[in-house]
């Protein structure tokens, strides 16, 4: 392994040319198309039957907590949910649920045999140990993609990955709490609602948003825009993905070509109708063309996969481009970076022409900057802001974030019953009521039925106990998995996204997500994870995940109280410490204990 050690840490840090979220490996799920690196996948261990989450009340494991972890792992890999099933890629370009099929089988076998007082340790998608702990301790502890900081570069990670020694866990792929595109949908909906409130008198009706990418995460954007009554033109280079999102209901209509797309957008804008139009094309080509035509959308953003240059599709014939990735990866990356720079420059130019521009967290700006494009002003601030500092940070100060739950029964009626309980528990939350109404009408259940909802400090604990009570009374037919995205108020350090532009300059301080994982473990979560790089690429973020299972027991109710108070409380701690007055007020009003402020 000596060839992997960088001559100097500085060289590898300079060489890091990757950063961000993801368009996705390929329209096909064949191993060759999905994985030009040919990492060892052990296909001989691939299950004969397609992996899908088991439904119902029959346990294969010794506890519901271990069973829940197994079902959520299976759900991540369900071909209806995952991006490239053969490669165990869930979303985010290369975000895997397990390192390879051999290690998947070992994880499954270990979960089935795990005693009620044992904990499985998972290192980058591989079960590496079982330890005796306590019945109230986590059943699974996961660490994905973590490298010593000076070695935390895409190139060094890629070498380890090719050797089968690590895997990229993204955010919720390797922590087994992915719930398909819905997982990011409400946060995207909240963001566009905040854009509407700030710039367009509370509605996107009569506006056009231009964006790009129709992967597992980016596919949320067109639906989020239309849920706020706006028109969305979304550009995606792989035609099969456009068609898939139309089938799923995330995109309303596919345009024949750019002229047709603009005709449709103009029509629906004039009608003030919420509608989305998918266009097969490359944003690096289409956005400059829009500028040449003097077309100015009210809003421009992007969520193509740019964190790893191997995941950003450059300009050109799509078949030739995908072949280039297989045969000449370095040239592919060179062309990808050139296209990223064109794409990013077009967004900057649209902003100069009057559009509201925002980065949606795929690190497009960071990659363009590494390519030599000027993306910052004289104060070193990005020329167009990220969505968190521009629109979401006040929610983080209240401990709010993408709280989610999934029905282990597989029965959609369980989610609908919880929806009713949610509205009954928070009757005065009009935004929440609007979200549930629109989600029920427009969001398909893919894999295990699930729901996502932004709830804050105090609200998560309250509603977790409501869910547990529904399980206890048999009003839902099996235990409910409760978790969240790693993109949360106190679980991530990501200077180009969630922690961009922190008030006290602590953007890159990674102690907070590590404390989050430790605190959730101590409080009794059922599985906890720590990842590097999710959303923005290796070396660009540290983040932590948490899951707890509502089984209906009094003992679990007590753990729910602790975990669902501790977890959002980390967001209040983090933002109060950074000097945000709103977070300090929330702490004082809601009894959050902060040393020195008591």
From TrEMBL:
| Active site, per annotation | 453
Q: According to its UniProt record, which reaction does this protein catalyse?
A: 4-imidazolone-5-propanoate = trans-urocanate + H2O
User: Which region ranges are annotated with the description Disordered?
Assistant: 1-38
* Boundaries of every Urocanase Rossmann-like domain copy: 181-391
Which regions are flagged for Low complexity bias? Answer: 26-37
Instruction: Give the GO molecular function terms.
Output: urocanate hydratase activity
Instruction: Please classify the protein's predominant subcellular localization into one broad category.
Output: cytoplasm
Protein role = Catalyzes the conversion of urocanate to 4-imidazolone-5-propionate.
HAMAP family (UniProt xref): HutU
According to UniProt, the name of this protein is Urocanate hydratase
């Amino acid at each position: 392994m000596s060839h992997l050690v960088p001559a100097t840490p500085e060289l590898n840090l300079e060489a890091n040319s990757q950063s961000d979220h993801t368009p996705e490996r390929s329209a096909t799920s064949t191993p060759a198309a999905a994985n030009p690196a040919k990492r060892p996948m052990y296909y001989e261990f691939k299950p004969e039957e397609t992996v899908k989450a088991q439904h119902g009340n029959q346990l294969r494991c010794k506890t519901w907590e271990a069973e829940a972890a197994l079902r959520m792992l299976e759900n991540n890999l369900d071909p209806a949910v995952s991006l490239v099933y053969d490669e165990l890629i869930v979303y985010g370009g290369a975000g895997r649920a397990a390192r390879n099929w051999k290690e998947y089988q070992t994880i499954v076998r270990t979960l089935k045999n795990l005693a009620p007082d044992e904990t499985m340790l998972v290192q980058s998608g591989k079960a590496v140990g079982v330890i005796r702990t306590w019945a109230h301790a986590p059943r699974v502890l996961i660490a994905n993609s973590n490298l010593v900081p000076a070695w935390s570069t895409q190139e060094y990670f890629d070498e380890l990955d090719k050797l089968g020694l690590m895997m990229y866990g993204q955010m919720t792929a390797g922590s087994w709490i992915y719930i398909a595109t819905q997982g990011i949908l409400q946060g995207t909906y909240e963001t566009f609602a905040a854009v509407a409130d700030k710039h367009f008198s509370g509605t996107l009706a009569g506006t056009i948003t231009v964006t790009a990418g129709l992967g597992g995460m980016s596919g949320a954007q067109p639906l989020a825009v239309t849920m706020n009554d706006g028109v969305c033109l979304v550009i995606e280079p792989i035609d099969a993905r456009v068609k898939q999102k139309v089938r799923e209901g995330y995109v309303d209509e596919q345009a024949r070509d750019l002229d047709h797309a603009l005709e449709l957008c103009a029509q629906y804008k004039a009608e003030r109708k919420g509608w989305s139009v998918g266009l097969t094309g490359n944003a690096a080509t289409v956005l400059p063309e829009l500028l040449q035509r003097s077309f100015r959308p009210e809003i421009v953003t992007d969520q193509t996969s740019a964190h790893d240059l191997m995941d950003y599709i450059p300009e050109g014939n799509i078949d030739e481009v995908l072949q280039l990735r297989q045969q000449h990866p370095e040239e592919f990356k060179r062309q990808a970076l050139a296209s990223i720079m064109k794409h990013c420059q077009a967004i900057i130019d649209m902003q100069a022409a009057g559009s509201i521009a925002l980065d949606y967290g795929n690190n497009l700006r960071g990659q363009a900057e590494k390519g030599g494009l000027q993306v910052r002003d004289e104060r070193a601030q990005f020329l167009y802001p990220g969505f968190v500092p521009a629109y979401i940070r006040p929610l983080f100060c209240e401990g709010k974030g993408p709280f989610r739950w999934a029905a282990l029964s597989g029965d959609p009626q369980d989610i609908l019953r919880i929806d009713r309980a949610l509205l009954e528990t928070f009757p005065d939350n009009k935004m929440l009521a609007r979200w549930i109404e629109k989600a029920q009408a427009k969001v398909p259940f893919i894999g295990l039925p699930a729901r996502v909802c932004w709830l804050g400090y105090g609200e998560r604990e309250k509603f977790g106990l409501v869910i547990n009570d529904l399980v206890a009374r048999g009003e839902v037919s099996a235990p409910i998995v409760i978790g969240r995205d790693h993109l949360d108020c106190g679980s991530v350090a990501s200077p180009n996204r969630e922690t961009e532009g922190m008030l006290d300059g602590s953007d890159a301080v990674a102690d907070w997500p590590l404390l989050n994982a430790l605190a959730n473990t101590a409080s009794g979560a059922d599985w906890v994870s720590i990842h590097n790089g999710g959303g923005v690429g290796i070396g660009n973020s540290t983040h932590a995940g948490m899951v707890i299972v509502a089984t209906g027991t009094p003992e679990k109710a007590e753990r729910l109280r602790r975990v669902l108070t501790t977890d959002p409380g980390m967001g209040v701690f983090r933002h109060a410490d950074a000097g945000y007055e709103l977070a300090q007020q929330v702490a004082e009003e809601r009894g959050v204990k902060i040393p020195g402020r008591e």
